Amino acid sequence: MEQTKLTNTQATKKKVLHITYDMRIGGTEMVIKNIIEGNNDGCVEMSIFCIEEPIGPWGKDLQGEGYSIHSKARVDGFDRSLITAIRKHVRAHKIDIIHCHQYTPWVYGTLAVLGLSTKVIFTEHGRFYPDVSSWKRRFVNPILSMMTDRITAISEATKEALVEYEFLKRSNIDVVYNGIRALELDLAEIESLRKQYNITDDDVVFGTVARLDPIKNHKMMLNAFAGLLAQHKNAKLFIVGDGELMEELKKQIQILGIADSVVLPGYIPYPKAYLAMFDVFLLSSLSEGTSMTILEAMSLGKPCVVTDAGGNKEIVLHEQTGLVTENDNSSEFQNAMLRLVSNRDLLADYGSNAKTVFTDKFDVEHMSKQYNAIYSGDSR
């Protein structure tokens, strides 16, 4: 049988397998998608293995673009069959590196390649609130770390959490900030939304995009906005997203008497136009890693008001690209919004600075270069 001669590039191509829960629409999944789509290194080939099913809409999108995605739904408890499935996949596809995203994929991935020449990279994308640990992790994690070639975290705050709660050595952890492609403005779409919601040039539009989950602390945001509205009737608030708190937030809005100034559009798959319509982006979370929606807002030149949670203050530079308030402090959050609604020049300056900081630090190219350097084995 005639054999095709491999080129040098094909012969030396490094295969990277991303191991994750799934590829639904979310922050971790966006990072993986951006790493894959932002890869311009012809010597690196990427694929995905999901440990839960279904693989999700972004998984389908990537499959449509020609990327290989495999999955095996793990069963309850410790699923030894999943370890076997990952190991078979790694061997069959001659995977050089597994990049495990979040803790559980790290555990299964590391055990699956034990004894193989495959390298292991673990990235922690965020933490639960409140953060907790266990005696098991105090024992297991240092051992897993010894079998792992590189560990990265998406913020300094996340890195410190790995040290405190996962018992990993600080010196073994690198910080690689999330990166995205800058969103592009569609002026016609923005104008259409403004007309739909009767937004005038005198209005100041605050907004957020996040699932309606207690950890996002929308209740505090609404209380702060109600206080602001008492002084500035021309303020509007958009809370884009859906989740378990929808009905509860609707009731709170009625009780506060602010229904005429608050819009809950629900889940919007691609909310770029809403972000572009906002004058100020808000994030009131109790816990965060590196918020992708903050990065999207900054890419559009939006000033931000955020809580001092997780990596927020590493992205939003206080009194430069926005304002950072004490976590879960309604009064501080209200005053920060008031400061911006009262000073259009300051609002414009922060927005311009946000765009510059995004371009210099959080564009997808910066993240891709860092991970490609890790894949190539560059020293720290």
Automatic annotation (TrEMBL):
EC number: 2.4.-.-
Gene Ontology biological process terms in this record: carbohydrate derivative metabolic process
Ranges of residues in domain Glycosyl transferase family: 190-356
Gene3D superfamilies, sorted: Glycogen Phosphorylase B
GO MF, one annotated term: glycosyltransferase activity
InterPro entries tied to this protein: Glyco_trans_1, Glyco_trans_4-like_N
UniProt protein name: Glycosyltransferase family 4 protein
